[in-house]
Amino acid sequence: MKNRRNRACILLIVFLVSWWSRKPVAVKAEGEQFAEQLYARSAVLMDADSGRILFEKEGNAVRPMASTTKIMTCILALEEGKTDSEVKVSEKACRQPQVRLGVRKGENYRLKDLLYSLMLESHNDSAVLVAENVAGSVQEFAVEMNKKAKEIGCKDTHFVTPNGLDGTDEKGAHRTTAEDLARIFRYCITESPKREQFLEITRKEMYSFQNIEQTRTFSCRNHNAFLKMMDGALSGKTGFTAKAGYCYIGALKSDNRTFIVVLLACGWPGNRSYKWKDTRKLMEYGLKNYQKAEFPDEEGIQVYIKDAVNKGNPYQKGEHLTAHIQKETEKILMRKDEKLEVKKKIPKNLHAPVKKGEQIGEVQYFLNGKAVCACPVIADETVEARSPGGCLAFVMKKLFLSP
């Protein structure tokens, strides 16, 4: 009897183990698994050509961004300031904490030299001097920074300081998101009329200059280690405060592909190398998984216009109008397993007259259900509206000009 009970218990245990092992186990998506491998609390990988976010980890989480702020300070100074202008050192600039150039009240500097100090060594006093030179004060410069951020398309960014040090005003704390910061950096390196000057400054390895009085000499060294870490590295900016942690923005170009990486809150003291590890990991992910693919060819588009003049006989209503898609680029960055969907938005009841070169609709391209590109549909020819005068002219021509 005892042996039977033992055998029954063993069989029951085997059954339960077997049943439990057959229960489905939750499998994390590839993106979730990859996100867990990153040290940064917020991270973004962007296609710089289209602005499409290829990967994000808490990309819309609002966080402080430390000295990565200075990319906005630099691009505004290049666009709105005069690089050969003289900058007089103020008391406010002298009071800025480390890291600083060490300017002295009453000295004079060239704006161009201060931009190298700003971007290579991340000097906080230089940032204040740049802001005061361009806008008259730090407060007014912050207004310009926020205005530019909105123009670029930032949704959750607010600038208070030109150097990224913690600050608060009536609209809240100095802050951004990884996605917004990627948009700003994309503007700096691909869209701004001063993008070439921005890249020249941020890629400089060493830069030396003097104050205008020529009583002091300074040397700046680029601290962006990523520039020598991977082939094709374009630009970047580091940042750190006790509140923000280590932050980084970087860009890389390879085989006609340009990637932007943004990292926020990527470790604190003792973890200085985390940002370089995360940057490499994200860039390698982009290089491995994303390739340029051509937009699908669309055959000639024809639109029927009921009230148009028929070319053969104006007494007959209706004419077919030919049109084409005006693409800004022929290729898009995408994964092999992604499929591009096309949706045409052309009015069903298009009315004459329509002029050659006029936009008559739009074609939208979607990846994974999200719109990635919208291209205008342009008329290839002019189509006139049917009118009594046109009909009369047709009749007169037939009567008097026909053989």
By CATH, the superfamily of the largest domain comes out as DD-peptidase/beta-lactamase superfamily
Total individual domains: 2
- Helical content stands at 25-40%
Strand ordering within the main sheet: 2-1-11-10-9
Q: Count up the helices.
A: 11
CATH topology descriptor of the largest domain: Beta-lactamase
Note the beta-strand portion: 25-35%
| DSSP summary, beta strand count | 18
Give the class-level CATH name of the largest domain: Alpha Beta
> What is the string of helix and strand elements?
HHEEHEHEHHHEEHHEEEEEHEEEEEEEH
What low-confidence regions span 5 or more consecutive residues with pLDDT below 50?
19-28
Mind telling me the C-alpha Rg? 30 Å
User: What is the rounded distance between the termini?
Assistant: 121 Å
CATH architecture of the largest domain: 3-Layer(aba) Sandwich
Coarse morphology: globular
What would the average pLDDT be, to the nearest integer? 89
Q: If you had to describe this structure to a student in words, what would you say it looks like?
A:
This protein has 403 residues and is α+β, with helices and mostly antiparallel strands. The protein folds into two domains: 32-289, Beta-lactamase (3-Layer(aba) Sandwich), CATH 3.40.710.10; 301-401, Peptidoglycan synthesis regulatory factor (PBP3), Domain 2 (Sandwich), CATH 2.60.410. The protein has eleven helices and 18 strands. The protein has helices at 2-21, 30-36, 70-80, 91-94, 111-121, 124-135, 138-152, 178-191, 195-203, 274-289, 388-401, and strands spanning 42-47, 53-57, 86-88, 108-110, 168-169, 172-173, 206-210, 217-221, 233-241, 245-254, 257-264, 291-294, 301-309, 317-325, 331-334, 340-345, 359-367, 370-379. The strands form six sheets. Strands 2-1-11-10-9 form a five-stranded antiparallel beta sheet, sandwiched between helices. The protein is globular, with a radius of gyration of 30 Å. The termini are far apart. The model is unreliable at 19-28 (pLDDT under 50).
